[in-house]
Amino acid sequence: MSIKPHDDRPATADWHTLGLEPGASRAEVQRAYRHRHALYSPDSLAIYGLIDDTERCERLQHLDAAYQRILAYDEPRHQLPTATPNSLHTGPSAGDVPKIEATIEALRHPGAFLREVRLAKGLTLEDISMETKIRSSIIDILEDERFTALPERVFVRGFVIQLARSLGIRDPEDVAKKYLELAEATKDE
Amino acid sequence: MNDTDISIQLPDSSLSSSMGESASQSSDRSRPPEQPAKGPQIWSVGGGKGGVGKSVIATNLAVALAEGGRQVVLIDADLGGANLHTLLGVPWAGNTLSDFLVGKVKALSQLLVPTATPGLALISGADPDMDIANPKFAQKMRLLRHLCTLRADHIIVDVGAGSSANVLDLFLSCQTGIVVTVPEPTSIENAHQFLRSALIRKLRFSEPRPRVRSIFNWLDGIDQRRTLKDPRRLIETIDQIDPEIAAILHQTLHSLSFAIVVNRVEKEDQRILGPQLATGCQEILGVAVSSIGSTEHDPFVPRSIAEHCPAILRFPTCPFSVSIRRIAGALDSKVRKNVDQAARR
Fold first, then answer.
1. In sequence order, which residues have a C-beta less than 8 Å from that of residue B223 and are 6 or more positions away?
2. Cα B88 from chain centroid (whole Å)
3. Whether residue B208 has a cis bond before it, omega within 30° of 0
4. What does the alpha-carbon distance between residue B126 and residue B260 come to, in Å, rounded to a whole number?
């Protein structure tokens, strides 16, 4: 069994490039990377007039290099559980990517929870729509919990499972079940 | 703008440190002894571009904070085009900021005008006929000294559009500068320019005056235009000449904090613009910037303006009002956190 040479490890500066401290969780690394990757992308509005294209490209390359080094150095002991926003917390690692645990509190409003996770990952409606092949207008309705505007129940279940799975939430079926329960309860009112 | 016009006058750093980041950051030494431990929290609202909603945001935030049980003073410091009285639907006051700036009115508190919202008072903007659009440095400093003595929880200062020296000075003197922008390239560009100019101005007029002034005079002389636009590059350059001053300026840059509000958000993907702007400014300008929220593009807002009544009062449940209340909550909790920190000391 070969031992990785010491200098394979990502430097502290690599973590700082992502705005993180060494040992941040994989989920945090991905979120930080997506956030900055979008920030330094060619059509980014947020840096308009702030830097020229040369500097933007340099920053993007710098970011990619740091991200690759951190990904390459993927030791479990480095994936310490750290704080994630609001009601999200990452459970123990299942396979490659740690799953997001939906708490009972979060599932009181499963639609809002889905949106929260999506935004925490820095994904737009269009991003998730591309990934799941669900129309963004439907995702918007699902996240808003506009139950009267929802499509048929049978579709809703599939959509919610699809979204939850794509967002890396643990137990997508349970999220769908809670979603439909809430939709039914609201209809009766 | 040249260095000489205000270089002989009172340094602004001594003043802003006395008003600095609430009790948590300002040491007892820098606070004037007569000032109570917990002064008002002073916010400035600016952002360069005209028409992005600075005044509407300032007015509605002030109402929201007052509705939350705080004592709030809203100050119309747009010396070129005051109109907060119109947004609030209060008659033009007899005495305005102009009368204070020319010395006709001795205390800022004499200018306070009640509004329809309990807990919210207005200081009306300057009278254009009094030609006070460019107050002298000493006049501005007197205004800032008086701001700290107002007995209120929050003071919100609308500094108006543009990046002129006066606007920047007012903006910088408050504890937290709120930059308002809309999701359009022109507005984003101006917001960046505004923040950049503010930071450079802050560094340029830092203490100790003689040494800092001579460095900047030298930089002006060798035409370092690019350096003089980039605070981090500027400090790096100065580090090669005078490391001690560079360290002080670095410290100054780190003591500042700003907040960003993205107004008139229409599309879902524009919601991440605030956090992106904050990260971009932090990484590129090297200054602490936080995103405190977005406000919705909302047809009820122009209607409320036409009716001379803040949207948050006229249409309390419209999307804009809901977002404003959320931002007001964020501002208020920030203050509570600072007060708690001070109390623990």
1. none
2. 20
3. yes
4. 26
- Under a CB-based contact definition with an 8 Å cutoff, are residues B265 and B183 in contact? yes
Structure tokens at A75: 């030791």
Q: Smallest CA–CA separation between A2 and chain B, in Å?
A: 38
Contacts of B268 in chain A (CB under 8 A): 124-126, 136, 140
Output the tens digit of pLDDT for each of chain B's 345 residues.
333 333 223 333 333 333 333 333 333 334 343 334 468 999 999 988 889 999 999 999 999 999 989 999 999 998 777 889 999 999 877 788 888 988 889 999 999 998 989 999 999 987 767 766 677 778 888 888 899 989 899 999 999 888 888 899 989 989 899 999 999 999 999 999 999 999 999 999 998 999 999 999 988 888 667 788 889 989 999 999 899 999 999 999 999 999 999 999 999 889 999 999 999 999 999 999 999 999 999 999 999 999 999 999 999 999 999 999 999 999 988 776 666 666 655
Count Cα atoms within 13 angstroms, Cβ side, for B168.
Answer: 19
Look up residue A129 and give its two tokens.
């729509």
Please say whether the beta carbons of A49 and B193 come within 8 A: yes
Residues 6+ apart with CB under 8 A from A166: A128, A131, A132
The dihedrals phi and psi of B72, each to the nearest 5 degrees, come to -130, 135
Q: Determine, for residues A46 and B273 on separate chains, whether the beta-carbon distance falls below 8 Å.
A: yes
Q: Could you tell me the two tokens for B46?
A: 């600016």
pTM as predicted: 0.69
* Owner of token pair 């939906």: A102
Provide, as residue numbers in chain B, all residues whose Cβ is less than 8 Å from the Cβ of A39. Answer: 276, 279-280
Take residue B109 and report the two structure tokens written for it. Answer: 């508190």
